[in-house]
Amino acid sequence: MTALPSPFVQIDGVAMRYGGVEGTLALRGASLDVGEGEFIAVVGPSGCGKSTLMRLVTGLWPPTEGTVIVAGKEVSGPLSIAGMAFQNPTLLPWRNILDNVMLPLEVVQPHRRQLRSQRGHYEHKARELLKLVGLAGFEAKFPWQLSGGMQQRASLCRALVHDPRLLMLDEPFGALDVFTREDLWDVLQDVWMARKPTVILVTHDLKEAVYLSDRVLIMSSRPGRIIAERTVPYPRRRSLDLTYTAEFQDIVHELRDRISDARKAEAPDAR
Ligand SMILES: Nc1ncnc2c1ncn2[C@@H]1O[C@H](COP(=O)(O)OP(=O)(O)OP(=O)(O)O)[C@@H](O)[C@H]1O
């Protein structure tokens, strides 16, 4: 019998308290595994600790208790193999779009070391990514010259330019109108199909979670932990028509009911 490969992301019994012993307990007993190349979505009540979980996986904060292992190593500082995108695109206003997308290459090794001698190669890569998300021709524009949706596309390119094995997305489409959001779902789907990074997506949008992921993890109210999961059965490439089918909507309703139960559940000793 062949052994199963170990998960790419392993979170085991993690607790996180902000601000010392009297501070806010954001997570308690949180455990989850994500396989390499898997796309998972994390949903849960507001304030349950989803963003906190993302910070622990990317090494931006250490857990108060428990372990976080990524690619076989315990996380002990910011992870260079991760690309990140958040609700707010946070592009640097004084850099044009191409230079914004290339920013991680100036920070993350081995790219940082190679950037000067291989600038042409890296620039080509950044331009190809911008083309993939429909931003060819906008390389020399500044963020303020782009719409919110276009800025979010650029921020997705920035998260991908250093070929991260792990893509961490914290409500990346939350601030966008529904049409732009749906366009970007398909952009993300195409990027995932082409490069197969491991993706952890935090979202409040249950339709988005089901449309994009292989598995949806549901968190309890704070202090958050994973209380249930739902496997999504649809092969890719998925089309938006799928979201109008009764079966798809049943899955969304099922998730909504579970989150509503989690919101009602008492968390008496959470502070
Ligand atoms: N830097 C911080 N210092 C102190 N408390 C914090 C900090 N960041 C988050 N918290 C608290 O930790 C808890 C979990 O916050 P977190 O942002 O992880 O939740 P979330 O599920 O992402 O929320 P939302 O769904 O509203 O975006 C909240 O009670 C929040 O107030």
TrEMBL record:
Residues annotated as domain ABC transporter: 9-246
Keyword Ligase: no
Entry-linked Pfam families: ABC_tran
InterPro entries registered for this protein in UniProt: AAA+_ATPase, ABC_transporter-like_ATP-bd, ABC_transporter-like_CS, ABC_transporter_ATP-bind, P-loop_NTPase
An example Gene Ontology molecular-function term: ATP hydrolysis activity
Entries under PROSITE patterns matching the protein: ABC_TRANSPORTER_1, ABC_TRANSPORTER_2
Keyword entries, A-Z: ATP-binding, Nucleotide-binding, Transport
Superkingdom: Bacteria
Family stated for the protein in its record: Belongs to the ABC transporter superfamily.
Annotated protein name in UniProt: ABC transporter ATP-binding protein
Organism: Neoroseomonas eburnea
